[in-house]
């Protein structure tokens, strides 16, 4: 049995360069930063699914697919004379060292994850020159899924002390908002329904933030339960041979 070749990281970088070269692959040559966005999103979500399912074999494969996207973007940028993979590696290494002074430098010793997170946010704010809470909120990527973006913004407000954590009050506000929506609908007023539903969704995410529950993952789990319920119904109606 022939032994398969084991490629190195450096050889993988060379492969990407060849694929993008004049004598390489027509599809790879045509790709741009923007055209690869759907691929990056798809591969990232597939990796998340592998992680959620604790599928180590698939995890290994999907990590490779995500790495491919990183290498493709770095290669395109290198061809444009902007930066290459070495700059990407150096950039993230520099960031990690700078944001972990308690590990790599003689910074204050931090004893738990909460202290590390707080120190990370402080260092990041200085790096980004964020002078206000709004500037910090504006830096949250607008391309994130809405639930995820809402929760990141709320966490920033919570850490800054501008959002007060009160679970019972938030539950009561949600009940009040639902009653208001019910009244609007019964009155036949459809103009404000979108705004009210948006307010309720944001309120649900806020409650998730207060309970330290990931709203995006929680909704995904509920959706899977919803699908599985119909799978059970269909299997009951149409049993497999």
Protein described:
- This protein has 241 residues and is mostly helical.
- It has two domains: 10-87, MazG-like (Helix Hairpins), CATH 1.10.287.1080; 129-237, MazG-like (Helix Hairpins, Orthogonal Bundle), CATH 1.10.287.
- The protein contains twelve helices and no strands.
- The protein has helices spanning 9-20, 26-30, 37-52, 56-79, 85-98, 101-104, 113-128, 133-138, 146-159, 167-186, 193-210, 215-237.
- Helix 1 (9-20) crosses helix 4 (56-79).
- It is globular.
- It starts with 8 loop residues before the first helix and ends with a helix.
- The mean pLDDT is 90.
Counting DSSP E segments of at least 2 residues, the number of strands comes to 0
Oligomer: single chain
- For the residues shown, what is the average pLDDT? 90
By CATH, the topology of the largest domain is Helix Hairpins
Q: What is the CATH class name of the largest domain?
A: Mainly Alpha
Q: Based on the structure given, which CATH architecture of the largest domain is correct?
A: Orthogonal Bundle
Q: Which structural category do the helix and sheet elements fall into?
A: mainly alpha
The shape is globular
Uncertain residue segments: none
């Amino acid at each position: 049995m022939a032994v398969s070749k084991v490629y190195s990281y450096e050889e993988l970088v060379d492969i990407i360069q060849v694929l993008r070269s004049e004598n390489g692959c027509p599809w790879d040559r045509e790709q741009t930063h923007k055209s690869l966005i759907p691929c990056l999103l798809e591969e990232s979500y597939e990796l998340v699914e592998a992680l959620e399912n604790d599928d180590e074999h698939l995890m290994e494969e999907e990590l490779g697919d995500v790495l491919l996207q990183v290498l493709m973007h770095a290669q395109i940028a290198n061809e444009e004379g902007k930066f290459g993979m070495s700059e990407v590696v150096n950039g993230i290494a520099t960031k990690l060292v700078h944001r972990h002074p308690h590990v790599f430098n003689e910074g204050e010793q931090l004893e738990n994850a909460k202290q590390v997170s707080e120190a990370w946010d402080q260092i990041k704010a200085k790096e980004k020159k964020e002078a206000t809470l709004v500037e910090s909120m504006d830096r949250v990527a607008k391309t994130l899924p809405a639930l995820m973006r809402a929760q990141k913004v709320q966490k920033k407000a919570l850490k800054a002390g501008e959002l007060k954590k009160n679970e019972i009050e938030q539950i009561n506000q949600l009940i009040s908002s639902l009653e208001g929506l019910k009244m609007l609908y019964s009155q036949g007023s459809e103009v404000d329904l979108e705004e009210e539903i948006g307010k309720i969704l944001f309120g649900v995410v806020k409650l998730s933030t207060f309970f330290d529950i990931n709203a995006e993952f929680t909704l995904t789990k509920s959706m899977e339960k919803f699908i599985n319920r119909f799978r059970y119904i269909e299997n009951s109606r149409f049993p497999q041979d």
